[in-house]
Amino acid sequence: MGIFINACTKHPDTGNSFIMKKTIKSTVDSLTIKYGTTFQARIEKGVTQVAKIWTKEDGTVADFEKVCMENYIGNDSSRFEAFEHLSNYLEAISGNFNEMVLGLKKVVDQDMGPILPIDQMMASYDPKSHLMDDLYTNKTAFFTILNFPFYSLQEKNELGANWSRKEWAFARLGDIFNSRVPAQYQQNINKALVDAEMYISEYNIYVNRLISNDGKPLFDKKLKLLSHWGLRDEIKANYGKDNGLEKQKLIYEAMKHIIFQDIPEEVINNDKYFWNPYSNKIIGNGKEISAKPEPNMRYQKIIDNFQTEKAIDVFNPDLNTFIKRKFEGEMEISQEDVEKLFIDFISSAEVKKVAELIKKRLGRDLQPFDIWYDGFKARSSIKNEELDATTKLKYPTAEAFKKDLVNILLKLSFTREKAGFIASKVDVDAARGSGHAWGAVMHSQNSHLRTRVTSEGMNYKGYNIAIHEFGHNVEQTFSLQNIDYYTLAGVPNTAFTEALAFVFQNRDLEILGKTDSNPEKYQLDALDIFWSLYECMGVSLLDMDVWKWLYNNPNATSVELKEAVLVISKTIWNKYYAEIFGIKDQVILAIYSHMIENPLYLSAYPIGYLIEFQIEQDLKGRNFGKEIERIFSNGRLTPKEWMKKAVGEEISIKPMLKAVDEALVQLVKK
Ligand SMILES: [Zn+2]
């Protein structure tokens, strides 16, 4: 699904419909008289929702009444018949658009020799960009809303527990037309996002030009690092290294200036000068030179995102803030629920215990940047060269991997029949980039597994990614082919397909027939994920609080936003980190680049890991193949309903905390 997300309409700047309440009432009354009171609630919902998105360009008030009167279906069997036909049309449209886009991007996505200018041109062409427009013009949108109205997340969660599969399928149809954003507004959003992405993609710091108070650089080799990922990874890489702590501290000081925006503009993406982040002075030709601080660009980019998103609130009758669109709309978990889950996790007793263990392993007190502590990575007992040799020999080409799909599934305990079926629905291509899985959107289509295959065959990294992607393909196959109603195809959100991809990836060595003899691997992995989520959830809370603040202060300047971000990040730090780290008022959570270029996206990571742990726990002692098929044949319910059916409880932090408790017992003993 997801093919209908690109809204594109031509109507002018009127978010509010001109259909008056009295027209809605008289239309509802006429329809109720015609079809009886049994349908009254549905009639009211449908007519009201059509009125909300009806514009002058769609017709007069009389046209509105006519569309409602002529298109409402007042008997259940005809309504179901219409549903089935509409589902088939949607499948034909979405499936064929999918085929087109797949074809248009083929040369760019697959390892097929040089990319010509015409390939780039066609790869960026979006054939479905006018689809939504067309479906409003020919009134399909109004027909759909009228007969299959939209249900809010709260309604889905409350009513959905007692809905039949058919009722769920009807409700999913109602999701397709619940907003109507004019093309120009969508373009403004995209432009602000692309600008922010550009800003971040050119935000490099040359750490070899960083100097300490003694005036000497600590990094000898030229090292250009992207903020914040590159800088963070360099901090991670310096655990246990000579001079490592000094280097980590130096990078941390530099990060703070990025957050405070008093970083000299002269050192951003520029290696002309030496920069001492402790004194914030820059040196050129042996002399101190006057520096200009960056003019709060970082915060201006957030404001630009906010303003363009806020401008479409009015075109979304139900999800009328960006916060609601991201959480209730995209993720289908309310922001309040996500916040509660994260707060429970980061204030759990386990945090303190894991922190104690880290202190012990480091032999020193914690520093704020130890939120990126990297010492729980399990060293494999099998050498990489050995793995490379095995996978290259086994998979010299993409075809060889395709031929082995059945075997891989048999090793994971799928039946021969199931394995054969899944393998027949997956094509394997050599990827140009690192790899991805491209799902099918109609029953007759195959999904695509893409991974790197070098001229010497698939190395271990390529294989490891291929197994991850294969997890996605298995999800994509079950959640389309096993689903009773087309509108229910898929999973609740991307975190769910990622969870299965990781479940597969965890078993990559087992599938190769190799056993890792590192006895602590499982425990270390649990602690590693736990600690990274402790950090990631804090950043997510900051991201959410910043957007709440923006909605309360819609005319804020970049300076005001900066001050607010500093206050909010310190508040979160003081609540959930200060005691653990023994230091107050740190702003480190505000360094993430996601906040600038992909707002409110970060929360999806932790949710994915929590789900993965719940699925792993459910799989214990059960037949893997059967259980995976059962779980991923639920279709696109809400996360809450899906999880109840899949593992018997809602998204929960308990399985991960349990794994951490067990790991602590094992590791602290030593
Ligand atoms: Zn993935």
Characterise the protein shown here.
It is a single chain. The chain contains 31 helices and eight strands. With 670 residues, the protein is mainly alpha-helical. A three-stranded antiparallel sheet has the order 3-4-5, with no helix packed on it. The two termini are 50 Å apart. The site of zinc ion has 4 residues, from helix 21 and helix 22.
Total DSSP E strands: 8
For the residues shown, what is the average pLDDT? 93
Report the biggest beta sheet as strand number plus sense, adding barrel if it closes: 3 strands, antiparallel
The helix tally amounts to 31
| Estimated share of beta-strand residues | under 5%
Calculate Rg over CA atoms.
27 Å
Give start-end ranges of low-pLDDT stretches: 1-15
Structural class: mainly alpha
Q: Ends: how far apart?
A: 50 Å
Secondary structure topology:
Blueprint: H1 21-35, H2 40-53, H3 61-71, H4 76-104, H5 106-109, H6 117-123, H7 131-137, H8 140-147, H9 153-160, H10 165-174, H11 183-201, E1 204-206, E2 224-226, H12 229-237, H13 244-260, E3 274-276, E4 281-284, E5 287-289, H14 297-310, H15 322-331, H16 335-346, H17 349-362, H18 384-394, H19 398-411, H20 416-424, E6 426-430, E7 435-438, E8 447-451, H21 460-481, H22 494-505, H23 508-512, H24 521-552, H25 558-576, H26 578-581, H27 594-597, H28 604-619, H29 624-631, H30 639-647, H31 654-668
Parallel strand pairs: 6-8
Antiparallel strand pairs: 1-2, 3-4, 4-5, 7-8
Helix pairs in contact: 1-2, 1-3, 2-8, 11-14, 12-13, 14-25, 16-24, 17-31, 19-20, 21-22, 22-28, 24-25, 24-31
Bound molecules: zinc ion.
Residues 468, 472, 498, 501 line the site of zinc ion (ZN).
